[in-house]
Amino acid sequence: TLRSDATLEGGKLHKISGAGWKETEIGTIDGFDNPEEGIVVLQEATEGQGTDIIIMGDGFSKSHFENGNYEKIMKKAYNDFFSIEPYASLKEYFNVYYINAVSEEDHDAVPTGLNGAQQGDAKTVFNTEFKEGSTNITGNDNAVVAYAEQAIRVKGGKGGTECSANDVSSRANKALMIVMVNVECHAGTCDMV
Question: How many CA atoms does the CB half-sphere of 87 hold within 13 Å?
């Protein structure tokens, strides 16, 4: 059992077992000087509370952040998403964020044929893996959700302010989480969790 006075800090992935608990960093939501700067609000809903869309990347090392490549890719994903109907006409109903998810290494999967990639062994923040000859991509869903929850908690309130702790889990359960993988190949799936 967990001590009654134990505090589980935000920004960490907590693993709790019957014998105790262990906390580990979930990775870097990195503003380099201030972690809150690593969560960027692209738009706030102007109709209703808004449905959250959180965009993040995997397999992007720190150099992609320093040269502006990461920001460019996140904004392109945002613009491409809202260029298609019905989202183009319903844009005002969404809160959209992107997160600086810094991987230890660039993704090293190698594109193959028409679909998929041959998996490499790079250390990435969400551990995305490709299946050769398929559009299937898997990864660490728990880490993706933890990043999304942190984005909503830190910047999900009106005007990009902190969101009420009671709303975070509920909003994350309804959110769309998009992971852009640093590999140019025909792959990607929608996973309804």
Answer: 14
* E strand or H helix at 130: strand 129-130
Q: pTM of the entire structure?
A: 0.80
State how far the Cα of 90 lies from the Cα of 187, in Å rounded to an integer.
Answer: 26
Residue 15 parent element (H or E):
strand 12-17
pLDDT (tens, 9 = 90+) of the chain, 193 residues, equals 455 566 666 666 655 544 454 555 555 567 665 667 789 999 999 999 899 999 999 999 999 999 999 999 999 999 999 999 999 999 999 999 999 999 999 999 888 878 888 888 999 999 999 888 888 889 999 999 999 998 998 888 888 888 888 889 899 999 999 999 999 888 887 766 5
* In the chain, beta strands by DSSP E: 12-17, 20-25, 28-29, 39-43, 51-58, 94-99, 101-102, 110-111, 117-118, 129-130, 137-138, 176-181
User: Which of 98, 96, 97, 95 minimizes the C-alpha distance to 49?
Assistant: 95
Are 143 and 126 spatial neighbours (Cβ–Cβ below 8 Å)? yes
Gap between the Cα atoms of 148 and 33, Å rounded: 20
Contact 94, 49 (CB under 8 A): no
Q: Is the dihedral of CA 14, 17, 21, 25 positive or negative?
A: negative
